[in-house]
Design a protein that fits this description.
Elements (H helix, E strand, L loop, with lengths): L3 E5 L6 H10 L3 E5 L2 H6 L2 E4 L5 H10 L3 H9 L4 E4 L1 H4 L2 E6 L2 E4 L4 E7 L7 E6 L17 E6 L1 E3 L5 E7 L1 E9 L2 E4 L7 H14 L1
Parallel strand pairs: 1-2, 1-3, 3-4, 4-13, 5-7
Antiparallel strand pairs: 5-6, 7-10, 8-9, 11-12, 12-13
Length: 201
């Protein structure tokens, strides 16, 4: 039986690549803005590219916030990717303006203190022992990042990476998993991570 996964469509790109990557590791994927489907799916993926505030506007536009919060409260799996990870946090600060996030993870998204932005390309990560997402992946495995903003501090099993400074590359907390990098653009390593997540759904 393949796991039924919803990729939340709230108007923020990269949906098809996430869909294809999940299908390749055996998920049955629906891309939809239907909040009931998002709430009831076995697994929910919240993708996201671009600006934090714009992504939050999109999520509010389809009234998906409560469905995500309900899933988390009920212990049902949610995976956030890139800005889809960032909006799971309490707040994001861009260009001096703070926007409220979904608040299912504690922390603030802030600009990276790095000489070159965006942080773009392949980078290694430092995963904690006991991680579900990174099970079976070697310590020198590289993932594909494209971002200028990141969370520096949160709770849960935290995986870090470095670009100018150390930041949160991934977090696992209860039923919530999130990656700042793009697993769907990270080749075999990303496929393994998605497979690991799917196995936990």
């Amino acid at each position: 039986m393949s796991k039924k996964v919803v990729v939340l469509d709230y108007g923020s790109g990269n949906l098809r690549s996430a869909q294809r990557a999940l299908e390749r590791v055996g998920a049955e994927v629906t891309v939809t803005a239907d909040v009931a489907a998002a709430r009831d799916a076995e697994g929910l993926v919240v993708p996201g590219v671009g600006a934090f505030a714009a992504c939050m506007d999109g999520v509010r536009g389809i009234a998906a916030g409560p469905a995500v919060a309900e899933r988390v409260a009920a212990g049902r799996p949610v995976l956030g990717i890139c800005v889809g990870m960032q909006i799971l946090f309490d707040a994001g600060v861009e260009h001096g303006v703070e926007s409220a996030g979904l608040g299912v993870l504690p922390g603030r998204v802030e600009k990276l203190a790095a000489p070159i932005l965006p942080h773009m390309g392949w980078n290694t990560v430092d995963a904690p022992s006991g991680s579900t997402l990174f099970a079976g992946l070697a310590g020198d495995t590289r993932f594909y990042f494209v971002h200028s903003y990141a969370v520096h501090d949160t709770e849960g099993l935290v995986t870090t990476a470095e670009h100018g400074e150390r930041f949160v590359a991934a977090v696992e907390r209860g039923s919530v998993s999130a990656t700042q990098f793009h697993p769907e653009k990270s080749g075999d390593a990303g496929a393994t991570l998605l497979e690991n997540w799917l196995a936990s759904v």
